[in-house]
Amino acid sequence: MVQLREKDLPGGSLLELAGEIKAAVAGRALLLINERVDVAMAAGASGVQLGEEALPTATARDILGEEFLIGRSVHSVAGAGEAMTQGADFLVVGTIYSTRSHPGATPAGPELVRQISRRCNLPLIGIGGINEGNLVDVLAAGAAGIAVITSILDAADPEAAARRLKQAMLQAWPGGSPVMQGETSGGSRVG
Asked: How far apart are CA 60 and CA 168, in angstroms?
């Protein structure tokens, strides 16, 4: 998945950028738009990623319908339960480790993923300070995948960094990615 997260762009500019990214990924990855349900619809994206303070998941589902993916950021077991009840398709769980993108957040460690995975049947994506050296711990705790920013964008060779992360994940998943196994080709739903 590629998530477009550009909080400072006005809607029209965000829509234009979404179109460019959609063309660049050319069906090789799902495109999610951060929080902007309107832009996700207009761009023909695969779905949205909603922060904890964003629209309620149920409201986004009413607007988008069943064919769009809805991810929800959660920081607690209670938040995960609420997002699951409201119809989220997957959860982004964090902050796992210290990260510059959320400097004030207290890292929860992989234990938060473990606790949520015991009570939730949705795919969990760990986020926050995850890199090649610690992604195995996050996946072992029950995450179906990871989300990264710094590990790729701060690398001297971002493409090589992404390939190394992908390889490390593939080695950690016996039989391949649990998320990709549940996808359907007609829609973008994750099972």
From this structure: 34
